[in-house]
């Protein structure tokens, strides 16, 4: 089985944040260092003071032998609040130990005072002799370097939550103790700035997908009577991996598809033959694998247009927006621009709205672009852009193929334009087949599994009608 893409599958910060902690499993309410020190009524933070540090606790499933409790932190930590924060952190860790959960600190959104946080972490870990190591994920580079230099015993650093859970799962499977603390910063092959930028971009993409995942969890819980979002997310993730359908694509389909009315979600549906793909049929590409096919679309487009950079975005029907699916040769600054959703005035958005090809031979002078988009494109060395919409048979846009050139005045030749139009037509035919076969197969399997979960020991009850 080929797993889904890393950005769409596996345990993630977004999935953990959507899972509320049960009362028996480290279910602590959000607290602040200032409110903990002052009592029930938290004082108002004066203007100019840093925002207090928040700790939110949630349970993450996915380990074979144990669960994990994720402590998500946001705000800032100064010297005055370090002692109170340390006390609150110890309280959360004690609850996790009592519940048999592995504590994981997500510190991606913390503005830290270096000495204060190191002292707090040192005091916290010093009193955890014999307890599981304190795992920190998504820490900013400054904190990671400081923890590495301080050599704090009992602290383990990981770049992402997925990496941490994967390593903990491997250790639990081996049945051995967790390996000794080893910071990624101490590795000669430590993550480069490029790796960190990719990580940040992936996290931003997850943030954009998180609301749709939450909606799908809610739909599944109500429709099948599931008691908690963790179970809904687990089934969504398993079906996503089994059918190699990205989780973002699957949850979007759950949200927009008509609800099932019976034991079969789509009764009377028959298998569809793969359409004859003139360009995409080369090299034995498997049309069931979405990422492989979209990468092939981009590869063919770059070759047909003799472009050095480009990307493909597809429409997410749940949010009615273009989502980045594949890219090559694009500068990180521009990709960040896309992932953030700041695409107003870009040629591919205009091509989607107009339903026709949009060519910008001179980025510096074309009035079609917004000033912000022009600035980003010029800043990344792009001087000419061409966007070709992927149109379904009904004329709706399901995606856009965009190419970049570094030379101003560049326009695709007639032969290149014809090849790109043919590629867009093939892509539209494949996407239609994929959505009506592979994606619907995944939804059918999801319906069968969730109906079985909803039935439980009492017998088949079927889904609730939405």
Q: How would you describe this structure to a colleague?
A:
By secondary structure, this protein is an alpha/beta fold. 44% of the residues lie in helices and 16% in strands. It is built from 15 helices and eleven strands. The chain has helices at 13-17, 33-38, 79-98, 114-126, 141-150, 161-174, 193-224, 229-242, 247-256, 290-305, 332-339, 347-354, 371-379, 414-436, 438-455, and strands spanning 31-32, 54-60, 67-77, 101-112, 134-137, 155-158, 309-316, 321-328, 358-360, 384-391, 397-405. The strands form two sheets. The chain has a six-stranded mixed beta sheet. A five-stranded antiparallel beta sheet has the order 8-7-11-10-9, sandwiched between helices. Helix 7 packs across helix 8 (229-242) and helix 8 runs antiparallel to helix 15. Mean pLDDT is 76; it is low at 1-51, 174-191 and 458-462.
List its traits.
466 residues; alpha/beta; 6-stranded mixed sheet; 5-stranded antiparallel sheet; 15 helices; 11 strands; 44% helix; 16% strand; globular
Quick gist of this model?
The chain is of the alpha/beta class and 466 residues long. The chain is built from 15 helices and 11 strands. Strand 10 (384-391) and strand 11 form a beta hairpin.
């Amino acid at each position: 089985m080929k797993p889904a893409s890393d950005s769409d599958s596996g345990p993630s910060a977004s999935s953990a944040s959507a899972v509320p902690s049960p009362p028996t499993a480290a279910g602590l309410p959000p607290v602040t260092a200032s409110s903990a020190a002052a009592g029930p009524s938290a004082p108002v933070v004066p203007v100019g003071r840093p925002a207090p540090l928040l700790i939110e606790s949630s349970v993450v499933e996915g380990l074979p032998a144990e669960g994990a409790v994720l402590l998500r932190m946001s705000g800032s930590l100064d010297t005055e609040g370090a002692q109170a924060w340390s006390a609150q952190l110890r309280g959360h860790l004690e609850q996790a130990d009592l519940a048999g959960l592995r504590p994981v600190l997500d510190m991606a959104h913390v503005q830290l005072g270096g000495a204060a946080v190191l002292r707090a972490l040192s005091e916290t870990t010093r009193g955890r002799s014999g307890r599981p190591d304190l795992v920190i994920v998504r820490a900013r580079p400054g904190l990671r370097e400081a923890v590495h230099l301080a050599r704090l015993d009992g602290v383990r650093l990981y770049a992402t939550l997925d990496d941490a859970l994967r390593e903990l799962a491997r250790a639990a499977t081996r049945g051995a103790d967790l390996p000794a603390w080893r910071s990624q910063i101490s590795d000669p092959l430590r993550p480069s700035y490029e790796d960190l930028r990719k990580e940040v971009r992936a996290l931003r993409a997850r943030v954009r997908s998180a609301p749709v995942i939450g909606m799908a969890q809610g739909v599944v819980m109500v429709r099948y009577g599931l008691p908690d979002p963790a179970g809904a997310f687990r089934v969504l993730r398993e079906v996503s991996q089994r059918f190699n359908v990205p989780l973002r694509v699957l949850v979007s389909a759950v949200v927009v598809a008509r609800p099932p009315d019976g034991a079969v979600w789509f009764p009377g549906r028959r298998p569809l033959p793969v359409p004859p793909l003139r360009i995409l049929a080369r090299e034995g590409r498997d049309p069931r694998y979405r990422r492989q096919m979209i990468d092939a679309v981009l590869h063919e487009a770059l070759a047909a247009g003799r472009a050095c950079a480009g990307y493909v975005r597809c429409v997410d029907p749940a949010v009615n927006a273009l989502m980045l699916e594949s890219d090559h040769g694009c500068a990180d600054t521009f990709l960040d621009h896309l992932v953030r959703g700041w695409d107003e005035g870009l040629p591919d958005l205009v091509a989607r709205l107009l339903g026709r090809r949009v060519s910008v031979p001179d980025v510096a002078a074309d009035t079609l672009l917004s000033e912000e988009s022009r600035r980003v494109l010029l800043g990344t060395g792009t001087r000419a852009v061409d966007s070709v919409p992927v149109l379904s048979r009904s004329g709706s846009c399901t995606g856009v193929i965009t190419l970049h050139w570094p030379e101003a005045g560049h326009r695709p030749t007639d032969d290149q334009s014809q090849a790109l139009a043919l590629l867009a037509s093939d892509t539209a035919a494949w996407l239609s087949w994929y959505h009506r076969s592979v994606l619907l197969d995944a939804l059918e399997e999801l319906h069968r599994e969730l109906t079985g979960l909803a039935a439980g020991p009492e017998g088949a009850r079927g889904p609730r009608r939405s």
